[in-house]
Specification:
Ribbon_hlx_hlx, 91 residues, elongated, mainly alpha, Antitoxin, single chain
Length: 91
């Protein structure tokens, strides 16, 4: 991916914080700022949702075995009795 240089002016405290956070994460300040912008624009959120969907698809049978397949009940049930659990689910 082609990169574009972007120069920004920030106060010393902000610059120091950016350097410290980047160092703590083992990345350059450029990469740190780039990731912050991606998170702010929702790109990271979309990536998370896609990864979560892939995870659920991969482990769907495990969840179905553990929790059942009733997706439309809208309330929690006790697995041993099949009865609703008080205080959980929709009001």
């Amino acid at each position: 991916m082609a990169k574009t240089q972007l120069n920004v002016r920030v106060d010393e405290g902000t610059a120091r914080a950016a350097r410290e956070r980047a160092l703590a994460r083992g990345m350059s300040v450029n990469r740190y700022i780039e990731e912050l912008v991606r998170q702010d624009t929702g790109e990271a959120g979309h990536t998370f949702v896609e990864a979560a969907a892939d995870f659920m698809k991969q482990y769907e049978s495990v969840f179905a075995e553990e929790f059942g397949t009733d997706r439309g009940a809208g309330r929690a049930t006790d697995r041993a009795t099949g009865r609703g659990v008080a205080g959980e689910g929709r009001s």
